[in-house]
Specification:
This protein is an alpha/beta fold. It is built from 18 helices and 14 strands.
């Protein structure tokens, strides 16, 4: 670390000191300009060598222990310069390394040297995404973002924009993305709380395939409708989780009409949505992944409407392969209908669903294609766990916090399904994001 200075700047400075060692001589030796410094001063000054007077005009000679002075001098002449491993890398290798850095660190690495600066600028000019996370300086705002995307990047190559936990950006950023990055197909705005309906409407003019706008409390039903009025049919993924102000009962109807190819939908913690909005979601025939975690206003009756076949489309929704109902009001009635409505499920998450009794959990054995099952803090018991032995494709099972389940039953199940289930999560589960 050079404290914000480049190695060249530090090497040419003769006034910086660290622990009594002259920085100029030490850094020049590290950079391969000179040989190793003869000696370093003791910062405490209590060494016996420091107590003896030194002859400033005479150069102190050090003789090798074996006495081979000539061989040592010859070896020192033939030895290569002491350069670091990074400095020996070609530009191509260095660019490959730098391309894996987050863009905040990529901008900072320009300070290392002139060579690094040139390679960083090359990586930025060839980048196809803009990823700025919370590690970027807090001074990032709308004007700084505009300068970055217009002056640093080749806007015609950018296909993805990701802003995570950047608190000072507003709707202007969305307008800048739509204006200066017209080819963007993926926009990821995570925990960007100052985005409102106007910003969301601006993003509707892009040819988006995937959009995430989470933790945006200022987005309302008006913004969702204006976005879908402008978006094209290419949208396949939509994440509006933690947008607590959205309240629209005809959300499924809007999605079917404006985004017929939608495959992934995340409405977790959208506390404004009720049973009337959730029940018709099963009629979206293209949907493959549906997340409905911690929905406060969605009752068990609303979930029964989601999994029942008493709708306009009575055929099973065979396309759905992931269903996340963590923290929901699901009960035994929901579990009875679920295998009939979604027979092709591969991932099912029912953590913290205390309303499902062991008899209701036994219906999970009918999901023959199930590969991942989350049952954290549910009422799973020994007999229900034994019924899961028929799930031949099960690979991941999370049963943390199941108080009614005994260790003996867990051990027996692991012995019976050792060839199938590879991952067990028996401890405290990770928080659902």
């Amino acid at each position: 670390s050079y404290c914000g200075h480049s190695p060249r700047e530090v090497g040419e400075s003769s006034v910086l000191h660290r622990s009594g060692v002259r920085t100029k001589e030490t850094v020049n030796w590290i950079m391969g300009k000179t040989g190793k410094p003869d000696s370093a001063a003791d910062p405490k000054g209590d060494s016996s060598d420091n107590q003896k007077p030194k002859d400033k005009g005479k150069k102190k000679s050090s003789k090798p222990k074996d006495g081979s002075t000539a061989d040592a001098e010859k070896e020192q002449k033939e030895a290569p310069k002491a350069e670091g491993m990074i400095s020996q890398c070609t530009d191509l290798i260095l660019q490959l390394i730098l391309s894996h850095l987050e863009h905040a660190h990529l901008f900072r690495s320009q300070r290392v040297s002139t060579k690094w600066r040139a390679n960083v600028q090359h990586c930025i000019s060839k980048a196809d995404s803009v990823r700025i996370r919370h590690s970027f300086p807090k001074s990032l705002d709308d004007d700084v973002f505009r300068h970055i995307v217009t002056k640093k990047y080749n806007s015609s190559l950018i296909r993805e924009v990701a802003l995570h936990s950047v608190p000072h950006v507003t709707d202007k950023v969305c307008r800048h993305i739509a204006e200066f990055l017209p080819s963007v197909t993926v926009v990821d705005l995570f925990h960007v709380c100052n985005i409102s309906d106007k910003g969301l409407r601006s993003l509707g003019s892009l040819p988006l395939r995937s959009l995430r706008v989470s933790h945006a409390p200022m987005i309302t039903e008006k913004g969702i409708r204006s976005f879908f009025d402008r978006i094209g049919p290419s949208l396949t993924s939509l994440d509006i989780s933690n947008c607590v102000s959205i309240d629209m009962d005809d959300l499924a109807e809007v999605i079917r009409g404006k985004a017929p190819a939608l495959e992934r939908l995340d409405l977790s913690r959208c506390y404004g949505l009720s049973d009337a909005a959730i029940a018709p979601l099963a009629s979206i025939s293209s949907l493959k992944e549906l997340r409905l975690c911690w929905m406060k206003r969605v009752s068990a009756q609303g979930l029964v409407g989601l999994v029942s076949s008493d709708q306009a489309e009575t055929s099973p929704s065979a396309s759905l392969i992931l269903l996340d109902l963590t923290g929901s009001a699901a009960n035994d009635d929901v579990m009875t209908l679920l295998p009939k409505k979604f027979p092709k499920l591969k991932t099912l998450k029912l953590g913290y669903c205390g309303g499902i009794k062991p008899a209701g959990l036994e219906n999970i054995k009918l999901l023959k294609h199930l590969r991942t099952l989350h049952l954290e803090y549910t009422r799973l018991d020994d007999a229900t766990l034994r019924s899961f032995e028929s799930l031949k494709h099960l690979r991941c099972l999370s049963i943390a916090g199941t108080e009614e389940l005994r260790d003996k039953a867990i051990s027996k199940f692991r012995a019976q399904s050792a060839a199938n289930v590879a991952d067990y999560f028996l401890g405290k589960p990770k928080p659902n994001v």
